[in-house]
């Protein structure tokens, strides 16, 4: 075989395969891109909900901790007042 005939055949085969690949794979790539976009949007919605629920849980824990601190202060003042008065003296 002579290179004068082989080179144009190789170039034409590569061109045909490239065009065919683009024509066949472009719709698949477009659908895959749309699917990935939907997945990213869904993930971001779920992430926002989780952030809010974590924030609510932290706020509830902060409220409970504040209530516990108030109760502890009250108990400490009550114990201190019992020990300071004449009726509360122990022997």
Q: What features would you describe in this structure?
A:
- The chain is mainly α and 91 residues long.
- The chain has one helix spanning 3-84.
- The mean pLDDT is 86.
Give short descriptive properties of this protein.
mainly alpha, 1 helix
Outline:
With 91 residues, this protein is an all-alpha fold.
| Biggest sheet character | none
What fraction strand?
Answer: under 5%
How large, in whole angstroms, is the Cα Rg?
38 Å
Continuous helix count: 1
The SS-based structural class is mainly alpha
Oligomer: single chain
Give the terminus-to-terminus CA distance. 121 Å
Helix-strand sequence: H
**Helix coverage percent of residues?**
over 70%
Give the low-confidence spans. none
Overall pLDDT score: 86
- Could you tell me the number of beta strands? 0
- Label the overall shape: rod-shaped
What is the topology?
Elements: H1 3-84
